[in-house]
Amino acid sequence: PVSVLRISPDEYGVVSGAWDRAVLYWDLNTGKLARAFAGHMSQISSIEFQPWSAQVQAQDVDTEPVDKRASPVLLTTSIDGQCLLWDMRAPKALPQSFHLPKKTPPWATSACWSCDGRRIYVGRRNNTVDEYELGMGSQPSRTLKLPMNSGPVTALAMMGNNRSLVCASTDNVRMWDLASVERRSSVPFQIIPGHHGGTISTILVDETSRYMLTTSGNRGWDGSSNNVFLGYEVTPIG
């Protein structure tokens, strides 16, 4: 079965990820398979394109303007903890791999980019989120630790201010202030009310970061009381 779908920013294609480890790029004009990405060893858990702003920042002043809809770098994760980066412009290039930290159990159910495309956040099974910086090696630059009873991290999304990371686990949805994580005198996150229990599968934030949507459920294993779809209107403070 297909576990993940992501439309390309230029809307010419869609990338699918499945339980059989396949990551496939489909041409929406023809409906045919255009490219296969081979490298994962287990079910695909997330697919994300790098924000186009990262290409603008890296662009040489003498080159042609970057298409805002183009995104040549693709991020994919799988349940066994693999996190791979693919260059869409190089069909035969090997992916870049980010390593699991020591003593971290295999798990990666969700991942997201920072808004500037310079960092990647990967949710883990042991109540943590690993932050990786592009160009700084394959090990995490830091790890965000949730409370011990929070459960596995199942969904992630970055707000438009590039410092607020929305993180979902079994107990709650939290919004982390990445700028204050190192300040041990203050709690680096706040609880977003609404969810409690069940598995939060999706967090969607619109481009303006004014609205956020979340969904949760457990496939009916414990009834349907946790099958919830919530919408939030985000109001900046200060």
The tally of beta strands, per DSSP, is 19
The residue ranges in which pLDDT falls below 50 over 5 or more consecutive positions are 58-63
The main sheet comes to:
4 strands, antiparallel
Any idea what the shape is? Answer: globular
How far is it from the N-terminal to the C-terminal residue, by CA? 45 Å
- Rounded to the nearest angstrom, the radius of gyration is 18 Å
Protein structure class: mainly beta
Helix content: under 10%
In percent terms, what proportion of residues is strand?
35-45%
Oligomer: single chain
Secondary-structure element order, N to C:
EEEEEHEEEEEEEEEEEEEE
What does this structure look like?
3% of the residues lie in helices and 43% in strands. A hairpin with a 5-residue loop joins strand 9 (110-113) and strand 10. The chain is built from 1 helix and 19 strands. The strands form 5 sheets. It has a 4-stranded antiparallel β-sheet, with no helix packed on it. It has a 4-stranded antiparallel β-sheet with strand order 5-6-7-8, with no helix packed on it. A 4-stranded antiparallel β-sheet has the order 9-10-11-12, with no helix packed on it. It is mainly β. It has one helix spanning 53-58, and strands at 2-7, 13-18, 23-27, 33-37, 44-49, 73-78, 83-87, 96-98, 110-113, 119-123, 128-133, 142-145, 153-158, 164-169, 173-177, 189-192, 199-205, 211-217, 228-233.
